[in-house]
Amino acid sequence: MSGDSMRIAVIGGGPGGLYAAALLKRLGPGRDITVWERNAPDDTFGFGVVLSDETLGGIEHADPVVYAALRDEFVRWDTIDIVHRGRCETSGGHGFAALGRRRLLEILHARCHSLGVRLRFRTQAPPAAELAQTYDLVIAADGVHSATREAHADVFRPHLTPHRNRYIWLAADFALDAFRFEIAESEYGVMQLHAYPFSADASTVIVEMREEVWRAAGLDRCDAAESTARCAKTFADALDGRPLRSNKSSWLTFTTVVNERWSHGSTVLIGDAAHTAHFSIGSGTKLAVEDALALAACVGEQPDLRTALDAYETERRPVVASTQRAAAASLRWFEELDTYLDQPPRRFAFNLLTRSRRVTHDNLRLRDRAFTGAVEEEFGCPPGTPPMFTPLRLRGLELRNRVVVSPMDMYSATDGVPGDFHLVHLGARALGGAGLTMTEMVCVSPEGRITPGCAGLYTDEQAAAWARIADFVHRSAPGAAIGVQLGHSGRKGSTKLMWEGIDQPLDAGNWPLSAASPLPYAPGVSQVPEALDRAGLDAVREEFAAAARRAAHCGFDLLELHCAHGYLLSGFLSPLANHRTDAYGGPLENRLRFPLDVFDAVREQWPADRPMTVRISATDWADGGTSAEDALAIARAFAERGADAIDVSTGQVVPDERPEYGRSYQTPYADRIRNTVGVPVIAVGAISSWDDVNSLLLAGRADLCALARPHLYDPHWTLHAAAEQDYRGPGAPWPLPYRAGSRTPPAGRTDAPKPRLTLN
């Protein structure tokens, strides 16, 4: 399509629309391209624009003229200042480039004019459907409130999620010397400032706060001038007493835009019309410009428009999804800012810098080793010790490092008895360096099994087998701890082995199920359980207590009570699984009663010097399920009863859940519980790298990190993480028989002779 004479209409004259027009015209000089912009040329929202080196590299390659003009305008800096409670922490090595949004538009206007693109300012574009009748391609770059997207919502299927913080875009007539975050703890609540220079004499200033703080401060009743003055007064120190100015600024709430499709016939969405990313990671303009680059390239590369639009979406969607996940994490961090206010100063700064999970401990250390080293010292890392190899004490148990082998059902027991497979499986991972290796969910009764292959702890034979495994860990991996997780399947029991059909009932040999309520896990598929009556509740409680006594005699170092994933105790906690009308159902206080009774019974049997943890599902990922406030209350209730840590998982309570998968996607729930309730937490959920572990620990989002699949891939994951970080201390000792393998084996030859000559 690169040499055709297409007619192209662009709705919206922001950076994305203008740059798309310029690129498409440059790549196809014969194309007839018109841009409609309802505002005047110099009307713009906001003040400064930040672009990454990656985006600038794409611009340089695609259009050197635009790149040269931008390069001459950029203000560059590499430091971030974080001011909190009168103390400024500075981190360097970050690398930013910014310019005024108005100047960016002027550069793009000039480029479009020079290429022959028609720009129609102060003109409302005709509807996309009307333009599509006479134009080959219609590009909808009409922003977050896109009329095009709404007109064809049945095809694009947009999902708009409003958020609760209020913010306002302002400017200061002087250049800050760093990207500045500042926290103000006012009488109304917490307010925050995000500010950065965008020219030699101006800075963007964004003031943000929770909706309730905004209202309490009376800012909902202020006009633009009064709001501007109030913000300048609140952050007078950052501004050195100088005023702020607005540009028709008003208080806004951010909306996350996601579309199931980005194109409809010959119409395609780009920029904020297709997707939004929170301003705290500075990606709105970046994404729009990168959309334009990808769209222009695909139109030039593909044989027809339909293929080009499909290729554009295929290329951009995963990149955008990744950015939106990072933006969502950053947005949530600022929404929950008040939970971090009491963190030590350097930890608070590190937490802010790593909030989106795109900046991690390792790359922050590369950017600013002195700052990261100071954070590690404040955390308590011994010299030369990564955070993950810093010991942690829970009651009488000292864990040599912060890595946990997460409980993973192996479905390989016979009549509940763990065999050689379990010895090798758990023993290998304990030898692999983890501070704590957890068993799978060990069932407290035959009826409490998930499958016929599940392990149990309800007979002496089972206890003897577990004692053999615990003894092996203690003898062969000195310093390693092993923990047992006790649970009861509830309504999710009597099913096939995972690889034969997960959650599918047995073809034969089923056993009766019991649960909080007579609700099948999968309606029309699963068995209907019997609701536990008084006698049944008492019997189950005693089964847990008996299993705890056996676990103590086996020599386990830690016991975890499984109250997650839709199993019996989790089923009492979730309103989606508990429809009881007695003292064990209804309000959360009632739904907690039986799990707490079981906890008390287990704690009574478990030795006082050994720690006990509780695994919970902090959300059901389904409407009407466990809420964020419920999760806090559940964690608080168990902590008050004596839980030494909360193992924070999510979901698996109902089959129609809708998890928001992604890297470390469950860790925000652990973070919130830790920093709100004040109880130690174990974070789980797609934590896959030692860098993630170090980052979560150092930021104060977790005390321990549990990893499952990485330990299936590599039983020696922890030892290898130590080797990759050049750590050889007591937090990750290699077993004596393995010590010869503690260095990375040499790879293939890399010292081949270099070419002597280059011939052109």
Percent of residues in β-strands: 15-25%
CATH structural architecture of the largest domain:
Alpha-Beta Barrel
N-to-C CA distance = 32 Å
Q: What summary fits the major beta sheet?
A: 8 strands, parallel, barrel
Supply the CATH superfamily name of the largest domain: Aldolase class I
Number of helices: 27
Lateral strand order in the biggest sheet: 19-20-21-24-25-26-27-28
Mean pLDDT across residues: 93
Structure, explained:
By secondary structure, this protein is α/β, with parallel strands linked by helices. The chain folds into two domains: 7-337, FAD/NAD(P)-binding domain (3-Layer(bba) Sandwich); 386-732, Aldolase class I (TIM Barrel, Alpha-Beta Barrel), CATH 3.20.20. Helices cover 37% and strands 20% of the residues. It is built from 27 helices and 28 strands. Strands 19-20-21-24-25-26-27-28 form an eight-stranded parallel beta barrel, surrounded by seven helices. A seven-stranded mixed sheet has the order 6-5-11-12-13-10-14, with helices on both faces. It has a six-stranded mixed sheet with strand order 8-2-1-9-16-15. Helix 14 crosses helix 15. The model is unreliable at 756-760 (pLDDT under 50). This is Bifunctional salicylyl-CoA 5-hydroxylase/oxidoreductase. Residues 7-324 form the FAD-binding domain. Residues 733-760 are annotated as: Disordered.
